[in-house]
């Protein structure tokens, strides 16, 4: 601990991303990356931009990208904000909508960046327990609060909250910002974007890292009423007006336009996921219903941590969370059919040696 650190930096516990090891070749099923390349149109757009105007600053308004997003979701450009990954968008949302000392609500098992941001921006938070089946208990969000954040589908469980339940939360919390974090929405969950015109306190956050294969580009965006979007822009332009580079802007635009490629890739991942679920259940795993590009599963005949370590030793990376209630589960990203067959084969070999 440095004597030069601020009091906030001394007390925060940073988010820990999934491993990106360099020591040997792994089948990486630990960071929910898309196993397929981005749309060919993305590569064309990037190539054109590389030989174009990289010497110039990017458009700070990201208007080409925002226009493409707004058309895809039937919104106006004034209802869309684009940022350097959805994590940055979420950070800006904390600054834009919550005051120091406010108390916000989110599930006890969810994306672990939420408490990091809460502590960094000195916002109090209350973790609302999921039920025994890892479902969100909607009635628990009908309580005094200064804001709500829900990941849908949730992470790391992959469970989806039906749209009518989101509506129920919004109906009760009309004076508080409700953020629905939809990083995995394209793999089997109904988006809350359709509720934006009805509820002016709703902010929907999405990313191009998962379903559009652009994790390396860092493209996130938020959708909501123009007042909410203006708040995000005020924060952005007080931190860094150029949060998105020229390549990310054109790549994101191309990815949004190529809907056929997007649909095809999502379908392939969903189909592979269902095969993996069936295989794991046949091996005795308890598998949580998933609407994401990963599954959350608990082995029956071996401890999850031991399985995690043995898989890693055999070149198969999955994610293990040593936390209460979920410390006997593994989160397994969905790769290609070949990668998932290798994963199932590796699991079988380990279980046979138990």
Description:
- This protein has 354 residues and is α/β, with parallel strands linked by helices.
- The protein folds into two domains: 7-37 and 260-352, Aspartate Aminotransferase, domain 1; 40-258, Aspartate Aminotransferase, domain 2 (3-Layer(aba) Sandwich), CATH 3.40.640.10.
- Helix content is 37%, strand content 14%.
- The protein contains eleven helices and 13 strands.
- It has helices spanning 7-11, 40-50, 63-72, 86-97, 113-120, 163-172, 226-239, 246-257, 259-282, 304-313, 337-352; strands at 27-28, 80-83, 103-107, 124-128, 148-151, 178-181, 202-207, 220-224, 286-287, 294-298, 316-317, 319-320, 330-333.
- A five-stranded mixed sheet has the order 2-8-7-6-5, sandwiched between helices. A four-stranded antiparallel sheet has the order 9-10-13-12, covered by helices on one side.
- Helix 3 (63-72) runs parallel beside helix 8 (246-257), helix 4 packs across helix 7 (226-239) and helix 9 (259-282) packs parallel to helix 11.
- The radius of gyration is 20 Å and the shape is globular.
- The chain starts with 6 loop residues before the first helix and ends with a helix.
